[in-house]
Design goal:
Length: 295
C-alpha cells in the first residue's frame, strides 16, 4: 500500500504535510538537512542510505517512479519493498520516540525477518490457494462462508471507513457491517476491518470462515509468529491472532482488489457503525456482478 501511495505522491512526509497546511516545515526531522520528499525519506536521507548500504543494495539517482519500477522488477522484489516499508516505519518510530530511535542494524534485522515471512506466505499461497489470487470473487466451499474486508482512508481527516461482507457458497448476502474509526495509519484501518469482520462472523455463529483482504501488509502482519511491540499496529494484530485461535476454522487469504469490490464500496461510504442484514442497491449490483463473473 505504501508503494501505491508513493506512486501517487501521497505518502505523508514533511513535504507532503507542508503542502497541505498540516506542518510548519518540510525539513527532514532525522537529518535536519533538506526537504523531506518521498525520495529523501526512503532513499536519500543518511538514515535510509545506511540501511540500503548494509543490505548491499545499489541506490541510484533515478526519479521516484523509475526507481520503484526497477525495484518491482528486481531479482528480489520482496527485499526491495520490505526495505522501503521498514525505512518508512523506522522514520515514523523515530519521529514519535526521540529518545529511542532504531539503529540501521535493527532496521536491517526487521527487513530480513520480513523477507523470510513474505517468502513463506507467498509459497503457501502458491501451493495451497492459487484461486484466491483470481481477478474476481470466488464463492467459498460448501458448509463455509466468505468474509471480505476492506478499509477506505478519508485523508486528511484521520478517519477511515471499513466494510465487512459475509456471503454463502451461492454468493448470497448473509451479514455485513460498516463503520468509521480514527486511525494512525492505512495499515491500522485494514487490520481494523479484518478484526471487525472476524468478530461479526463469530457473533453470527459461523464456524467455517474464509476471510479475504487485498492488503498484503495486513496479511503479513497477522501471520507473523513473533510480533514486535515497536510496531504501532502490534496490539490490533495481536487481537486478530487471538480471535483466529478461538474454537473455529478461519483462514485469512490475499486477493486482488478487483475481487474485493463489494467490501470496498461499503467501506467508501461508511459513517456510523451499522450492521446490515440486507445489502443496499449499489452493493446488490456488485454482488450480482461477482456471481456473473464467478459463473
Amino acid at each position: 500500500m505504501i508503494i501505491g501511495c508513493g506512486l501517487h505522491n501521497a505518502i505523508p512526509t514533511a513535504e507532503f504535510r507542508l503542502g497541505r497546511g498540516l506542518a510548519l516545515s518540510s525539513t527532514c526531522h532525522r537529518c535536519q538537512n533538506g526537504s523531506e520528499s518521498i525520495l529523501h525519506c526512503l532513499r536519500e536521507c543518511p538514515s535510509a542510505k545506511e540501511v540500503w548500504t548494509l543490505l548491499g543494495l545499489y541506490s541510484d539517482n533515478s526519479n521516484l517512479h523509475d526507481w520503484l519500477y526497477r525495484g518491482a522488477r528486481s531479482g528480489d522484489v520482496f527485499l526491495f519493498f520490505s526495505t522501503i516499508w521498514w525505512i518508512w516505519r523506522s522514520r515514523n518510530h523515530d519521529l514519535f520516540n526521540i529518545d529511542d530511535s532504531w539503529s540501521a542494524s535493527k532496521v536491517v534485522s526487521l527487513i530480513r525477518s520480513s523477507v523470510r515471512e513474505f517468502h513463506t506466505i507467498f509459497a503457501m499461497h502458491q501451493s495451497l490457494s492459487p484461486p484466491s489470487l483470481c481477478l474476481h470473487w470466488i464463492p467459498p466451499p460448501v458448509h463455509s462462508v466468505k468474509l471480505n474486508c476492506d478499509a477506505s482512508w478519508f485523508a486528511p481527516s484521520g478517519y477511515a471507513g471499513f466494510g465487512c461482507i459475509i456471503r454463502n457458497p451461492d454468493g448470497c448476502w448473509l451479514k455485513g457491517c460498516t463503520g468509521k474509526v480514527e486511525v494512525c495509519s492505512v495499515l491500522f484501518a485494514e487490520l481494523y476491518a479484518i478484526w471487525r469482520g472476524l468478530l461479526l462472523a463469530w457473533e453470527s455463529g459461523f464456524r467455517e470462515v474464509i476471510c479475504e483482504t487485498d492488503c498484503l501488509e495486513a496479511l503479513f502482519l497477522v501471520n507473523q509468529r513473533m510480533l514486535s511491540k515497536d510496531i504501532p499496529e502490534w496490539d490490533l494484530a495481536k487481537h486478530i491472532q487471538e480471535v483466529m485461535n478461538w474454537n473455529w476454522r478461519v483462514s485469512i487469504l490475499l486477493i486482488q482488489r478487483t475481487a474485493n469490490s463489494v467490501a470496498k464500496a461499503a467501506a467508501s461510504v461508511a459513517d456510523i457503525h451499522s450492521n446490515w442484514s440486507q445489502p443496499w442497491s449499489e452493493l446488490q449490483h456488485l454482488i450480482d456482478l461477482d456471481m456473473t463473473l464467478a459463473n
